[in-house]
Design goal:
The chain is α/β, with parallel strands linked by helices and about 200 residues long. The chain has one domain (about 5-200): TIM Barrel, CATH 3.20.20.70. Helices cover about 45% and strands about 15% of the residues. It has a nine-stranded parallel sheet with strand order 5-4-3-2-1-9-8-7-6. α1 links the parallel β1 and β2 (about 30-35). It holds the Pfam family Aldolase. Pathway: Carbohydrate acid metabolism. Belongs to the KHG/KDPG aldolase family.
Length: about 200
């Protein structure tokens, strides 16, 4: 069982990706995405998949097309995270037995994504939708739907989001900013994991 937290390494480079990912795993974060607008993202994904693929779910974020899904799969990635809910991307990921977390805001987007086979839903940007907006969406989703909040969620508000019904979170700038050392990222990761657990964030 793993924590329902996805570490977002936007801007990470291949030369530092392995050390930073190792720090995340040491803290208990075993799902890692390298957004495709990072430097040489497929190289980083390939390195991480080779090194940690047996004990972590490695993949890509900011995935916008089916062609990108195939490239991520070829690099060894098994997780597809998108800022939007394009059914062709979801279907391409599921056809390759990859996990797919598309970005949604509205119920229409949520149901289209689920119909296409999404593993779970990424509420993005969560800070814009807000907790009340999230609760309204959550209320109409099928039982068991995984809903992850991404964007503006962190140590200071985990408890509020968890109490309102969110299942997990994607951790971006609170976890990693370009140029930070593996040691610094590890410290931030441990603090975020402690805060998530203190907020009642159990394992999946």
């Amino acid at each position: 069982m793993t924590l329902p937290l996805i570490g977002i390494l936007r801007g990470v480079t291949p030369s530092e990706a392995v050390d930073i990912a190792h720090a995340l795993l040491e803290a208990g974060i075993t799902r890692i995405e390298v957004p495709l607008n990072s430097p040489s993202p497929l190289e980083s994904i390939a390195l991480l998949a080779e090194r940690f693929g047996d004990r972590a779910l490695i993949g890509a974020g900011t995935v916008l097309t089916p062609a990108q899904v195939k490239k991520v799969h070829a690099a060894g990635g098994r997780l597809i995270v998108s800022p939007n809910a394009r059914t062709a991307v979801i279907e391409a990921a599921r056809a390759l037995d990859m996990q797919s977390f598309p970005g949604i805001v509205t119920p229409s987007e949520a149901f289209d994504a689920l119909d296409a086979g999404a593993t779970g839903l990424k509420l993005f940007p969560a800070v814009q939708v807000g907790i009340e907006g999230m609760k309204a969406v959550r209320a109409v989703l099928p039982p068991g739907t995984l809903l992850y909040a991404v964007g503006g969620i962190g140590e200071n508000n985990f408890a509020e989001w968890r109490a309102a019904g969110v299942d997990g979170a994607g951790l971006g700038s609170a976890l990693y900013k370009p140029g930070q050392s593996a040691g610094q990222v590890g410290h931030q990761a441990k603090a975020l994991v402690r805060a998530w657990q203190a907020a009642g964030g159990d394992n999946e």
